[in-house]
Amino acid sequence: MHPVFSSRYLKVDHCAPLPLLYAKWTPQASLMTEGEFVDHVEQFVALVKSYRTEAFLINCQEGHFLLRPDLQEWHDQEIVPQYLAQGVRRIGVVVAQDDFYTNLAMELTFGEELASQLSTRFFADPDSAWAWASKGLPVLAMATA
Predict the structure, then answer these.
(1) Domains, the chain, ranges and CATH?
(2) How many Å apart are CA 90 and CA 139, to the nearest integer?
(3) Predicted model pTM
(4) Per residue in 35-89, pLDDT tens?
């Protein structure tokens, strides 16, 4: 894995040679404004496109931004179509077992109309999410940035 994006809220690694990204929200993520969250998601989408991502992991164990219903709808209408167009096949979400509200918001976000077309699963640990998300992915000869 090598780092491809880093902020005080989010770290993203490319898991070469697989078309897989690993995103980890930091404990400070809960302090983001809605605008900062939107900017981070849009930057992540650009990485998905740049690295020809077919699967990604989102680790929310240490922190995440709590999405209100209007942001969940924005994600479904504006972001998910880009994932689908890119050919994203799997999204593994690692959740904190003791954060009911964030977990519920994540489940609702990926349960929206368009997002339900993505194969999304929730996990208690990164290793299980990695095993599921990476299964069957092709090994890329050369990653592009």
Answers:
(1) 2-134 (3.30.750.24)
(2) 16
(3) 0.84
(4) 999 999 999 999 999 999 999 999 988 888 877 888 888 988 899 899 999 999 8
CB 52 within 8 A of CB 139: no
Q: Which are the contacts of 82, defined by CB distance < 8 A and separation ≥ 6?
A: 45, 48, 49
**CA quadruple 101, 103, 109, 112: dihedral sign:** negative
Mean pLDDT computed over every residue of the chain:
84
CA-to-CA distance for 17 and 142, rounded, in angstroms?
Answer: 7
> Is the pLDDT confidence value at 17 over 60?
yes
| Cβ(58)–Cβ(23) below 8 Å | yes
Beta bridge partners of 2: 14
